[in-house]
């Protein structure tokens, strides 16, 4: 059996490889989307199809280092791109010409007129997969900014969201707009306040430090993060791995409905947390704690740029309870 240290080193190596694959693979998919949109001939689509097959092969080869959620996300994105490619083929490939047919007998013509065969429904290009399927939205490589729905510059009503490489930012996506976040991926955030509102699916957090998340979701997972506070409304078990100094606070669904809420409400239920690094279930994990109230609700009211000192005070106060 491998030693604990070797298993930890192996897990860290896999996490680094997974993050590198995540960035490179998403760049590859973005390039495929762009090429599909800009393509003007069937030959171009054939080359795109070959590259799409190579992307699928690389995903299969990297399965062993990827978390299950990442694999599902990449497979879903590949399917979406394949659907868009098929839709584009339908608009670029030449339609079949009319073939000359023998003149039908009069009796057959009457029968045909009496019982016409059903016609194929017309193809509505406005509702095809190319317009129904949307790429994920993203906010990347920002520092000391206030990021809102307007920052996404999207007209889509449903989409996944990726937050990547943000530092000292406030992300406030609570809004009465019709945008529904289906799933959210968060990677490499430092000293950020992230308010997502209600997410229709899951939220996955990787490699974050000194951050505050306020959200509702069906599933929450956090990996390789430290000094993170999570104010959450969920009915499922929150899972964590390779994390330390986490604080969880349960909030009600109504706390996420508008940007004017200050999250003063009491927790509606007790949150269940599974720490994969904590083996002895008879003792509480030293990697996380829970509180009855969010430590500093004023931070969540009107969206403002986070103040580093204010965040440090928040996390220092939380750590004293651990």
UniProtKB/TrEMBL annotation:
Classification via InterPro entries: C-CAP_CF_C-like (IPR017901), CAP/MinC_C (IPR016098), TBCC (IPR027684), TBCC_N (IPR031925), TBCC_N_sf (IPR038397), Tubulin-bd_cofactor_C_dom (IPR012945)
GO molecular function, one term: tubulin binding
Record-linked Pfam families: TBCC (PF07986), TBCC_N (PF16752)
Entry's Gene Ontology BP terms: post-chaperonin tubulin folding pathway; tubulin complex assembly
Localization terms from the record: Cytoplasm
Residues in C-CAP/cofactor C-like domain copies: 140-278
PROSITE patterns reported for this sequence: C_CAP_COFACTOR_C (PS51329)
Cited Gene3D superfamilies: 2.160.20.70, Tubulin Binding Cofactor C, N-terminal domain
Keywords, comma-separated and alphabetical: Acetylation, Cytoplasm
Keyword Acetylation among record annotations: yes
One cellular component (GO) term of this entry: cytoplasm
Family: Belongs to the TBCC family.
Oligomer status and interactors: Supercomplex made of cofactors A to E. Cofactors A and D function by capturing and stabilizing tubulin in a quasi-native conformation. Cofactor E binds to the cofactor D-tubulin complex; interaction with cofactor C then causes the release of tubulin polypeptides that are committed to the native state.
Record-given protein name: C-CAP/cofactor C-like domain-containing protein
Organism whose genome encodes this protein: Acaromyces ingoldii
Record lineage: Eukaryota, Fungi, Dikarya, Basidiomycota, Ustilaginomycotina
